[in-house]
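ugh ok fine here u go
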Amino acid sequence: MASEPEDLAMSTNVANTLAREGMAAPHVRRDTALDRVLDAIAWLCKLITGTGLVVLTLIFGWLVYGRYVLNATPTWVEQVSLLLVMLITFIGAAVGVHEGTHLSVTFFRVILPRPLRRLVIALCHVVLGIFGAVMMWQSAKLAIFKWGSLIPLIDVPEGVRAIPISVCGALMIVFSIGNLLALARGYDEDLVPSDNP
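structure:
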């Protein structure tokens, strides 16, 4: 059985061979200080969304218990769950930008020559960053506009609903810039993970 350094050397050789033949990028790791910071931010976002999902499950359990056992439905659960769904959805979407897990059609991109493929990948990240900027700006305006009214049953400002959208937009900008910098260093997200750790 090959040791781990030999396996790494073998995968590096495969990636570099593909790069020499013009089929892939040279072997580049995503382990710079910036990448570690972005990974930490993504991990924190996943922790927040995971905790939100657990809390969402618990409060719905409380809703069922209150309704059928105590015969006293906790009315606040619906409004809190809507806030949690906003948090889970938008913060999770930002992590998807960082990890490249969003649904995408890469067939056409993969068959392009490497320079054109890199241009298309860069264009995708630029568009994602611009979309994130628009999300951040418009949802911040929405939060400010709605801050004066309260969410029924929980007495929280209505603008709180737009905060996860604004945070998602800001994170999309940051993660898109990180992906563009990795692309500039030669990282090719279309390679299989073993060829491009």
